[in-house]
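To illustrate this point, what follows is a protein record of this kind.

___
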Amino acid sequence: MTETRRGRFINFEGPDGCGKTTQMHRLAARLRAEGFGVVETVEPGGTRIGNQIRAILLDPANQELFPTAEMLLYFAARAQNAGEIIRPALAEGKIVLSDRFTDSTMAYQGLGRGLGEEMVNALDAIACRGLKPDLTILIDIDLETGLERARGRGAADRMDAQAEDFHRRVREAYLRMAAREPHRFRLIDGRGTPDEVAALVSAAVIR
């Protein structure tokens, strides 16, 4: 992004079942009530093309999808989202809330799948061209509770159905990223009630 950007970009991250989607919607409602222009988006998805890619990525029938192909599809959806939704909204001075961004790919594919940080960073440079969140809300929850919530939502998608060891690596990756970039990440305890977690998220954003 150039220095002329007037908006703010906040992404919500966390292991499956942490409640980040609910909290993003709640924050959006609060910000709109306070008079802010807010755009919500989701990854993979957010656009018509991105939603088609999302269907491929999350379809439980696609278990043969190779990790590298998986990561390339995530970045293809992200490039479309960044160009079609995020950058234009930021240029208009709006607050963009994204349910996941490149941090997810770093946690799930870079470290969870073992593809490495270097590959994620190289693809991010191509797909996002320097677009990075101003603030990252990381909602953390223990592995057992998160997976119970995620798998209790109905039919598990392809990512929910991964082995517990994979989800453990993802959570550990998130915590390492938060420790490495404390200026950007705000670590939120996701074990409370939705109201309690929402209060923590609001305080982090205001601060």
